[in-house]
Write a structure and sequence with these properties.
Layout: H1 6-24, H2 28-35, H3 39-46, H4 54-64, H5 68-75, H6 97-108, H7 118-129, H8 154-159, H9 168-181, H10 186-192, H11 200-204, H12 213-223, H13 226-241, E1 246-247, E2 255-256, H14 262-281, H15 285-300
Antiparallel strand pairs: 1-2
Helix pairs in contact: 1-4, 2-3, 2-4, 4-6, 6-7, 6-14, 9-13, 12-13, 12-14, 13-14
Length: about 300
């Protein structure tokens, strides 16, 4: 476990970010556009008036194009684990699903494949799947990734196609379709959702516009809809929020939407959920073949299934 104090780590990272920004001649506004942080937050971080948390560090490094190993090397792998004191004051910090999405995208950008050390995979999976309650974390994750999984980001890039926009009504219809196909009543599906207090009826009617990432994961896992159902959640999020995609790094090879609020958070969460479902499904090669075929179908036409 890395036992170095937090303050020198924070100071080193801030200097690294400041030097990189000066070298690229970027204003605070330009950096804010690339990092989903506000100009004020960037200014406070660089002046030492605001604490630098891990998600802010990841976003700054992501936007500035600093190699992940260079930024993470100052913090150390153990520091990515939940509950590690990362703030300058020594307060505990819990990584969130959205922050995990940035970290996951950053790791994936290194060689185009998911190849994170097991301890990082577990830390991110724990953060992604735990359900906090009034500021407290669940005691254990509901799902863990396949430790040896390696997955090309190209699959997600294929699925993320601007012409494949579906609504929340379509997503709700797909949930109902796969629930009936699985022979489950609404009550039985709710029971399978580990006691989650979600309104399944509102989801199926297309009235539930915000879905926790853990709920999408569990629906995906329980209904065995795999990438097909998940693609509905993805398209629904993009269509409902009306977001456009924003190219952030040519080396990353993907595009992500700018951070404009809660709706964007949902899209990023669903995007990252897709990645984890793909990783979890890597143990089934037949399913991956099916996913690739569906991704190709999505990239070529707008899919509008007919429900029974």
């Amino acid at each position: 476990m890395n036992s170095r104090p937090a303050q020198p780590v924070v100071h080193t990272l801030i200097e690294l970010f400041k030097a990189t920004r000066r070298r690229r001649h970027w204003s605070g506004y330009q950096l804010a556009e690339r990092t989903w942080l506000s100009q004020g937050q960037i200014s406070r971080i660089e002046s030492g008036k605001s604490e630098l948390t891990l998600p802010a560090a990841v976003k700054l490094a992501f936007g500035l194009g600093i190699p992940y190993e260079q930024a993470a090397g100052h913090v150390g792998v153990p520091a990515i684990q939940p509950a590690r004191p990362l703030k300058a004051t020594g307060q505990h910090f819990f990584i969130t699903p959205l922050d995990a999405a940035f970290l996951g995208a950053y790791l994936a950008s290194q060689d185009g494949e998911w190849d994170a050390p097991p301890e990082i995979q577990i830390a991110i999976a724990t953060a992604l799947t735990d359900t906090p309650s009034r500021g407290r974390r669940a005691s254990r994750p509901t799902l863990l990734p396949h430790p040896g999984a390696r997955l090309s980001w190209d699959i997600l890039q294929e699925m993320y196609h601007k012409d494949c926009l579906l609504t929340f009504e379509d997503f709700g219809a797909s949930v109902r379709h796969w629930r009936l196909k699985a022979g489950l009543s609404g009550e039985e599906l709710a029971d399978h959702l580990r006691g989650s207090k979600i309104n399944l009826y509102a989801i199926e009617k297309g009235e539930r516009k915000m879905l926790p990432v853990s709920t999408v994961l569990q629906l995906e896992h329980i209904l065995q809809a795999k990438g097909w159902l998940l693609a509905f959640a993805w398209r629904a999020a993009e269509h409902f929020t009306g977001l456009y995609r924003h190219h952030v790094e040519a080396s990353l090879g993907i595009t992500l939407p700018p951070h404009t609020g809660r709706e964007t958070d949902l899209l990023n969460k669903v995007l990252f959920t897709a990645r984890w479902c793909l990783v979890l499904g890597e143990q089934d090669s037949a399913w991956l073949d099916d996913l690739r075929a569906r991704a190709k179908e999505y990239s070529e036409t707008v899919v509008r299934p007919t429900w029974p």
